[in-house]
Design brief:
Strand order of the largest sheet: 1-2
Order of helices and strands: HHHHEEH
Number of domains: 1
Mean pLDDT: 86
Shape: elongated
Oligomer: single chain
Helix content: 55-70%
Distance between the termini: 43 Å
CATH class: Mainly Alpha
Low-confidence stretches: none
Number of strands: 2
CATH superfamily: Winged helix-like DNA-binding domain superfamily/Winged helix DNA-binding domain
Number of helices: 5
CATH topology: Arc Repressor Mutant, subunit A
Length: 118
Amino acid sequence: MPPEPEATAERVFTALADPSRRAILAELAAAGPATATDLADRLPITRQAIAKHLALLAEAGLVIAEPGERRRVRYRLDSAPMRVAQQFLAALARDWDGPLAALRHHLDTQEGKPHEYS
């Protein structure tokens, strides 16, 4: 049974809150699958810190660990949890559209003329 979308979105947002984890994801997106050592060579983050961040990213489902040669583990991106988080944000935005439009209409009718909104 798949996890609830809100729980998945929460794990994704928690993972993305850290700039080091975002850098790791960006590097994997740009250069493809890599080991923790490969990532430590490319980023200003220690290998030990990268390993900890990769574990959290794996928990969130954003990376998948794949066994490689000589017991080296390579990590690759999995975009499915990110899509769930995007859908969560899109639904949230839709929920705001109605009340914001009503507020805009109310403000416009109070003064009798439309306002410019940025």
